């Protein structure tokens, strides 16, 4: 319930994530200077191919990641304007719109450096323009998108922006319908066939990269990189597991701050050390009884990609109501989330499987299983659906998931509209009203003596 | 005798309701004085208190709701419109299962359980489609008084298939229909049909239930009720005072907050560790099966291959 008294910040974010922020900043600085360092550069989108690029001796740029970084720094505007000027309006995925704008600005910057071009665009603020255009031009593209209706066209357009002169490699991913009799999460004929299909393409990618680089691929380096990543992913999962505690020692927002490291940083000891630090700080909090939200009263699940320009804001907003957001599809069902699948001696199959496990690549049956499983495990009281305006692949099944959670677990849900890298779709009052209404709903049920969490749910299905 | 005040400071009108210990309405007031008007709110409160023969000091509890709920100085607590409309409507129409509230700036569909508590709800996103504002745009475009809109629409027969849901674009579409020479009765009825269809989409998000109750200022429009009933293929009930359900619910909540048990406090237990309960996860040395908690050792490094 909303108190009329003054609100204060009750969030208590992990301090260790600042170290992750520095690792990420260093990574981007190295990428910006990669050309001068004599590296070949690959632009890619979708699943985390970085271990392959690392083993191939390349510098890599993940398009969504750079768009998210610009949005998190509130610097996405110039790139989006450049994208709009090129012809892509606000209905297009804001990751792609931002990244395509970066392509335009990068190309424009290269033309200026060579004395062949001039600024004619609408983008004006010098420092922002510089940040958005600091990406080095690619030598080639690799697309690795699963379950996304925009991803392949996005890289296809990037290919056009750069004059259709750069090589591009596309990996196709079967959608995991999950509707065959033996189909299940990580099991069944469909899963095995799809895993083999993508694994085969990864082998073709590696042969293609050998052609692009003129060097034999370093398989030992790939195993070493995946060994580090597997260890980091295990630590991440252990930390996530510890957050089932009541009150929870850390929240979904802390794990959002850990997305960049697990998603695209090099597989090395620094990555392992970082996630060990995250796990250790969570353990210390558990031992000391320090919660991630002061006065935790509600435990929530968050379904949707992150609004990257709202991380701090959302963290504070939920905390001010005593709501600890603990789990979510974007965190628990993405980013090397099943490290036991990775055989470091022969990592391609486990990698292929993780690319298939993109949270937009499951049929509703599997999504339903995963969502309800995590709601139960974290004993959540309600679900917040971020209806990501320009990512319909993510939002498509959300109503089904909400209905299933209500019918099966008796937990309520709310929806609010926003976007991954465009704050204009977000309206604070809409989230505030709906969130508070749901918390009131939970309070009323508690007053009536009902258990409100997903564990020991309210009872049988509602009609 | 104790008395409780509920104040609904909405986007276009302020409502105040006073109830007694039994939850019976002693006085109610509705004042329209512009967007989230504090002056309008104060006037509504003053009028309701005067009608009940009370002073502010006589009140045992006050709860506010509506867009401006945080601006009501008398309120000890505020609740959202969702909670208050469900509470007030359940008290006015016992047994209600679906509340459709169409106010000045938003519309909402709320399913209510058999105990009168909110089960699920959906609200319009961002724009004014399907709200009171939309009807105002229509009335302005066809140059009729808002109070005459309903009877006018009930006289219309031809469905002109108005498609615009943005109030601004709809005005353009209405002007276009006027320019084509269509009768204003047909235009009015067509817009009402379009709004009913929009409301039906909102209802679809929470599930159609019955009895259905329509509340909010728009509920006073007989055509809105008629076309919504056609769209739902079900009778739509309008309570005697459809605009005060939110304020009434707030007053009832003020009574319950003062007399009833306090909200459950947060779990003060020491942190507890929870193992996997279902298969599928994997962490540390775990193989994804339900098991006891697993932890890595103190030395963190890459395992020897």
Model description:
- Chain A has 463 residues and is α/β, with parallel strands linked by helices.
- Chain A has helices at 17-32, 50-55, 63-72, 76-86, 94-113, 126-132, 151-161, 189-213, 219-242, 252-256, 259-264, 269-288, 311-320, 329-332, 348-356, 364-377, 392-395, 398-409, 428-447; strands at residues 41-46, 59-62, 140-144, 168-170, 298-303, 323-328, 382-388, 413-418.
- In chain A, strand 1 (41-46), helix 2 (50-55) and strand 2 (59-62) form a beta-alpha-beta unit.
- In chain A, helix 4 (76-86) packs across helix 5 (94-113).
- The longest helix of chain A has 25 residues, at 189-213.
- Chain B is of the alpha/beta class and 305 residues long.
- Chain B has helices at 38-52, 81-92, 132-141, 149-154, 167-179, 184-206, 222-232, 245-259, and strands spanning 3-9, 13-20, 25-32, 59-65, 77-78, 98-102, 107-112, 118-123, 212-215, 236-237.
- In chain B, the strands form two sheets. Chain B has a five-stranded mixed β-sheet with strand order 3-2-1-4-5. In chain B, strands 8-7-6-9-10 form a five-stranded mixed β-sheet.
- In chain B, helix 2 (81-92) packs across helix 8 (245-259), helix 3 (132-141) runs parallel beside helix 5 (167-179) and helix 6 (184-206) packs across helix 7 (222-232).
- The longest helix of chain B is centred in the middle third of the chain and has 23 residues, at 184-206.
- At the A-B interface, helix 9, helix 12, helix 16, strand 8 and helix 19 of A face strand 5, helix 2 and strand 8 of B.
Short summary:
The complex is a heterodimer of chains A (463) and B (305). Chain A has 463 residues and is an alpha/beta fold. Chain A is built from 19 helices and eight strands.
Task: For this entry, give a set of tags.
heterodimer; A: 463 residues; four-stranded parallel sheet; 51% helix; disordered N terminus; B: 305 residues; alpha/beta; five-stranded mixed sheet; 8 helices; 34% helix; disordered C terminus
């Amino acid at each position: 319930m909303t108190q009329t008294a003054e609100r204060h910040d009750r969030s208590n974010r992990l301090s260790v994530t600042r170290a992750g922020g520095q690792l990420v900043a260093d990574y981007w600085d190295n990428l910006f200077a990669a050309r001068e360092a004599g590296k070949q550069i690959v632009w890619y989108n979708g699943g985390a191919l970085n271990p392959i690029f690392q083993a191939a001796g390349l510098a890599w740029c993940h398009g969504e990641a750079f768009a998210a970084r610009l949005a998190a720094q509130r610097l996405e505007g110039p790139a989006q304007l450049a994208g709009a000027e090129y012809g892509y309006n606000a209905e297009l995925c804001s990751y792609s719109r931002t990244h395509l704008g970066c392509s335009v600005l990068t190309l424009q910057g290269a033309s200026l450096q060579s004395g062949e071009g001039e600024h004619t665009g609408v983008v004006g603020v010098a420092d922002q323009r510089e940040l958005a255009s600091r990406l080095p031009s690619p030598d080639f593209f690799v697309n690795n998108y699963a379950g996304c209706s925009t991803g392949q066209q996005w890289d296809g357009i990037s290919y056009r922006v750069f004059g259709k002169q750069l090589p591009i490699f596309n990996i196709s991913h079967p959608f995991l319908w999950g509707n065959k009799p033996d189909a299940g999460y990580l099991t069944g004929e469909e899963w095995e066939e799809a895993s083999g299909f993508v694994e085969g393409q990864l082998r073709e990618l590696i042969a293609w990269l050998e052609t692009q680089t003129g060097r034999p691929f370093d398989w030992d380096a790939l195993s070493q990189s995946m060994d580090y990543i597997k260890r980091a992913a295990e630590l991440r999962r252990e930390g996530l597991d510890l957050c089932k505690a009541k009150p929870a020692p850390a929240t979904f927002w802390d794990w959002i701050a850990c997305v960049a490291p697990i998603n695209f940083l090099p597989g090395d000891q620094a990555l392992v050390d970082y996630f060990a630090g995250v796990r250790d700080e969570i353990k210390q909090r558990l031992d000391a009884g320090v919660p991630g939200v002061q006065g935790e009263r509600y435990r929530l699940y968050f379904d949707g990609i992150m609004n990257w320009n709202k991380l701090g804001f959302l963290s504070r907003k939920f905390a001010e109501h005593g709501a600890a957001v603990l789990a979510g599809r974007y965190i628990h069902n993405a980013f090397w989330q099943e490290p036991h699948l990775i055989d470091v001696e022969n990592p391609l199959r486990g990698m292929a499987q993780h690319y298939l496990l993109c949270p937009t690549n499951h049929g509703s049956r599997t999504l339903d299983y995963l969502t309800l499983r995590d709601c139960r495990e974290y004993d959540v009281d309600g679900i917040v659906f971020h209806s990501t305006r320009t990512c319909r692949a993510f939002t498509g099944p959300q109503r089904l998931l909400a209905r299933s959670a209500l019918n099966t677990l008796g937990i309520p849900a709310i929806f609010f509209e926003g976007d991954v890298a465009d704050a204009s779709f977000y309206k604070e009052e809409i989230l505030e009203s709906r969130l508070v209404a749901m918390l009131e709903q939970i309070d009323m049920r508690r007053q009536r003596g009902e258990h409100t969490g997903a564990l020991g749910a309210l009872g049988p299905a509602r009609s | 005798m104790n008395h409780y005040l509920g104040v609904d400071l909405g986007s276009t009108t302020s409502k105040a309701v006073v109830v007694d210990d039994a939850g019976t309405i002693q006085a109610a007031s509705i004042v329209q004085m512009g967007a989230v008007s504090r002056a309008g709110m104060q006037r509504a409160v003053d009028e309701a208190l005067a009608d009940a023969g009370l002073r502010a000091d006589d009140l045992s509890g006050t709860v506010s709701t509506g867009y401006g709920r945080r601006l009501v100085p008398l309120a000890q607590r505020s609740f959202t419109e969702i909670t208050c409309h469900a509470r007030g409507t359940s008290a006015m129409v016992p047994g209600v299962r679906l509340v459709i509230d169409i106010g000045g700036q938003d519309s909402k569909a709320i399913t209510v359980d058999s105990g009168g508590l909110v089960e699920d709800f959906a609200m319009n996103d961002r724009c004014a489609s399907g709200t009171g504002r939309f009807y105002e745009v229509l009335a302005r475009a066809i140059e009729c008084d808002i109070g005459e809109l309903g009877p006018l629409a009930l006289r219309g027969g031809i469905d002109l298939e108005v498609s615009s849901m943005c109030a601004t674009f709809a005005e353009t579409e209405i002007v276009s229909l006027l320019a084509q020479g269509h009768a204003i009765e047909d235009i009015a009825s067509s817009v009402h049909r379009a709004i009913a269809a929009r409301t039906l989409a909102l209802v679809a998000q929470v599930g159609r239930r019955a009895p259905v109750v329509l509340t909010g200022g728009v509920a006073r429009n007989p055509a809105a009720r008629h076309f919504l009933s056609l769209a739902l293929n079900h009778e739509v009930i309008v309570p005697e005072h459809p605009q005060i359900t939110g304020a009434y619910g707030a007053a009832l909540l003020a009574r319950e907050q003062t007399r009833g048990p306090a909200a459950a406090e947060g779990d003060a237990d020491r942190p507890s560790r929870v193992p996997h309960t279902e298969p599928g996860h994997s962490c540390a040395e775990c193989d994804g099966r339900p098991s006891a908690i697993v932890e890595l050792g103190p030395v963190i490094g890459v395992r020897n291959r």
